[in-house]
């Protein structure tokens, strides 16, 4: 009876841990534990049961995100289904490979190759996915600064790897079928990985006491309005309301407003910006605002900087969109006028990709001003995705979401200020001083090298597995032949 309940119990336990340890409102500690039940199960059941249990556990663990993928306009439904089902199948493959390597006496490879497979497949998927990635595991620990510093070297890929390697190593070390020496090597490797992550994090955070060099405020109307017509009464009133909020900020602040605050055309653009340009000049405040601008030929999704000195605005054209979006894609880095290369402009989905953020970091940017929209449910997770991009490339991030979690993070991924648009107040504001930061990171210089390393490690694990199977098959044939000859 107990053996029959083993698989359902493991599925239920992992599903609950994934549900509460990942997603839109994760409990970070649970994300490390979530793979454990199904990985403990894997070597004790058949390959088919191990795969199906892991697939089902991960699929059920994503239950809190189903509604988002069904309703979001940002991710087409086929892509949403592919993300949910594909990542669940991938986790099933991880458990299957873990079982196969562990049962063949390869505990060290069992602890490292399956996490590498996870990262490798995620990376390949991202290369083909037009909506980029919001890391399904890494964002769950984004609020633990000592852990996420490794992203400055490996990218957030390293976080996904270690989050799976730790539970895999625990199971591999405790598996009684492994040889003592192999178990020791696996334990040492797992402990070393944890020591490197935590030690590097502590060392990097020890230098994170820099004074603030720029005052930043992110603000949002707590009523979601996507690009209301700037020439209409609603759009005009909204811009004036934002101007009044900006007038209350201290001189020298950079105010970052959300994506799609208003919709403009050639006739209404100058008038829409006038109240904001006036308050920016009078109060000595820089303003960055998201605008959807329509021309007779095509639409643009702009992040517009209105300089405090009253000089002409500069516009950044968003680079990345969901498939079918009727916008012209940008391909140029744009810096806030008057700030040299210290402040780069970006926009929402751009932070689902390493570009243009790495380009800004390499050009010397220390702050990324990012108007964003976000949607019901996913705002906090998306803000943490932006935070991790900042850690990767060594820049502070001012994330001004229309709906969700307006946030300011420093280059070490510490949340300096944040607020929530689910508020009874008509406007919400979060403000903080951001430091200059440590400068360009290893990841900014070398990009997704760790993901490529995981591709090689995954291939090595698969090759070793095939060789072991072939060797076992040859041994079996030899034994049968010897038995037949002996009988003759």
Automatic annotation (TrEMBL):
Keywords from the UniProt entry: Acyltransferase, Cell membrane, Membrane, Transferase, Transmembrane, Transmembrane helix
GO cellular component: plasma membrane
Membrane topology label: Multi-pass membrane protein
One Gene Ontology biological process: lipoprotein biosynthetic process
Domain CN hydrolase: 216-436
This protein's record includes keyword Membrane: yes
Cited InterPro entries: Apolipo_AcylTrfase, C-N_Hydrolase, C-N_Hydrolase_sf, LNT_N
A Pfam family hit: LNT_N
Sequence intervals crossing the membrane: 48-70, 77-99, 157-175, 187-206, 449-466
Chief site of localization: membrane
Domain of life: Bacteria
Location(s), subcellular: Cell membrane
GO molecular function, one term: N-acyltransferase activity
Name the UniProt record assigns to this protein: Acyltransferase
Species: Nonomuraea longispora
